[in-house]
Amino acid sequence: MTQNAEEQKIRRMDDVLASQVAAGEVVERPASVVKELVENSIDAGAKLVRVEVQRGGVALIRVTDNGSGMSAADAAMCLERHATSKLLSYEDLFDIQQLGFRGEALPSIASVSQMSITTRREADVEGTLVTCHGGELQPPMNAGCAPGTEIRVCNLFYNTPVRRKFLKSDDTEAGHIEHQLKLHALAFPGVRFIFVKDGCTVFDVPATTDFRQRISEFVGRETAAELLRIRPVNGPGVRVSGFLMPLSAARRNKRMQYVFLNGRPIEDKIVARAVRDGYGGFPTGLHPALFLYLEVEPGLVDVNVHPAKREVRFRRPSDVTTCIIDAIAGTLSVHARGESELASPEPAPLVLAPVLEPLQQELQLPSTPPPVNIVRPTPPPAPPQPRELPQQHVAPVPKPHTPSCVQPEPIPPVPAPPAPFRVDSAPVQNMPNFRYIGVLADSYILFENKDGLVLLSPRSARERIIFERLLESNRRPVSSQRLLVPALLELDPRDMGVALDVREQLQQAGFLISPFGQNTLRVEAVPMMLSLPRVEEFMLELIRSFSSGETRLKRSRNPFEPYAILIAKRYAAREDLRPWLKAPIPLLTDLLRCEIPYCTPSGKPTLIPITMNELDRKFRAM
Fold first, then answer.
1. What is the pTM of this model?
2. Parts of the chain belonging to CATH 3.30.565.10
């Protein structure tokens, strides 16, 4: 029995709706648009890629290249769903040699924006202009243009306002775009990349055959000079090369860890585990800094397992793992002995498809590389010794790169509070209900009261105390102290956008920050209640905690509360507890004066009581 047409529930989506559904996977944010368009430019053989954005890419994304261009027929066809020049048969799916191949990117982007494509092949007399608004394709028109392709994406998500609501601030979105373009620039040093944000040139990196030179454009010449060139290792269909830093330069995050597979930036657990094993392990919470380049025969890897192609699946993961471990361990061993980078012959390059030959050539260093400062692995630095809170903090000043159109913003003077306070400045009161007993394992303080035994965690107590002092900033301004020399932080573009987003909340907590160059942040003052001998390290960790989204831990009527939670948590985690173990009564006094003294802002206990009845039951049971 068949259903009537009126009763039929399953229907075919129209092309525009299907493209908008696909856009939900392909176009996550403006940076996703830049990724797809730049990959198309590289696949077209471009040697110059210029990316211009306005308002974080929401108002305008314009990608211009000098690649092969398209004919009028191809320009119109490229906006059809699943139209591609890169896959012709089923077998091609297992021999992917380009960055893009699905044919979903352009129609998906066009379905949620106002797009125009201007393109011309070098042999053609005139070019072609194709426009598409919200998925509605307009007839192609003749246009005058230079050889190559220019794609304009305007008013992103204008017809899907719900998607636009999920975007972050313009600075944050622009930071993600800059990071995405940086990945492509690191993968293809033979291509010149230009990035313009709101009319200001952020970077213009020239094409080069010296891979270390390209890295230095983004991490600085001093850091690039300390990189150790990985001794290339060949395996069955696999080649590993690149640069790494010694274990002593390990970071607390993965922001300086770049892994590329055939020119494609990836995130893979197998590779991450192999990197750790290659270093022979490293302290928990630290991550090595490296630029790792994997060349794998296309038939031995599947890059079609993730909508954004960030994850891959290796056909023989053990071969990849072995090569990575051998390459990293061998490099560290050679440099630990003080041998030259080029002391041993380099293995023959892996024979891959012709499309990957430019990548192999880009990874070849000149015969006379620049001098390298070899840094021998050393154990991590010891934690700082406790000391009294200084009146001024002195921090080293690096030399930031400041574009001509970026001027440092003036820092407003810090208002002097009527009476600066410190969390441990309250006078000690008589506490007849608590008697100090001692310290357990240099970690917990033991007290006795009328009910039995009480264990106090100094770290949790300090977290609660700092948190409530920060919340008092709504009624009483936090006392700040200026640094004798402002601390300058070189940030990742994504972290810089987040720092500017939370600037007001940090100022409420007593931190005064301002932009000082493109990705440089200036720290002028810190809260007086916090003893910060290493301002740079604390601020970097704090900003990256904001970037990871930890401020969403708790919802509250007070919008400042999540930031206060995170600041207190990060400071308490770094604070030296030995002075508080020697002064338990003032610590307990400040804790009991808190509004909620028995737990941290995230719900962990600060005090754990063990009653006499509980002790009696345990001993009687035995």
1. 0.68
2. 15-207
